[in-house]
Amino acid sequence: MDYFVYENGELVRFDAARFIREHKKNKKVLSNLRSRLRELETYGISALKFDSVKVQTSNIADPTAELALMATHLKKQIVEYEYWLSVYDKTMCQMSDGDRYVLETMLNPDASHPLYSCMEHFHLEKSAIYELRSHAIKRFSELVVGEL
Hints:
Number of helices: 7
Strand order of the largest sheet: 1-2
Shape: elongated
Low-confidence stretches: 47-51
Mean pLDDT: 86
Radius of gyration: 20 Å
Helix content: over 70%
Structural class: mainly alpha
Number of strands: 2
Number of domains: 1
C-alpha cells in the first residue's frame, strides 16, 4: 500500500483519491489474506513456535517451516491492511456528511454516473461538484497525514 509520494526522503503528498478508490478492494484483499491464514492454521501452523526473524532469514527446506514463513508473511500483511482500513474508517467518521457523500460517490469505482448523482443530491452544477470533491479530498488528506 504505497499511497505516499516521497522526494528526497520528504513526504510530498498523500494519494487520497487512490486510497479511497481502493478501499473496497483492500477489504476484499484483507478477507482473502485472513482466509489463507486460516487455511494454514488448519495444518497446525499456529501451534508451532517460530522466531519470526529466524523464519524470515533462514534457508528453508522443511515444508512445515515453509508454511510457518508463509503464515508469518500473511500475518504482517493482515496487520498492515487492518491498520490502513482503520485509518480510512476513522478519517471518514471525522468528515462531514456532505464530504463523505462526495468521496464515497465520486471515488466509487463501481458507481454509475457518480457526478450526476452528486449533482442531483446537492442540487449543484458540475463545476461546484468538482470543487466539493477537491475540497473533500484535501480535507481527507489533511486528516490522514495528521493521524500519522
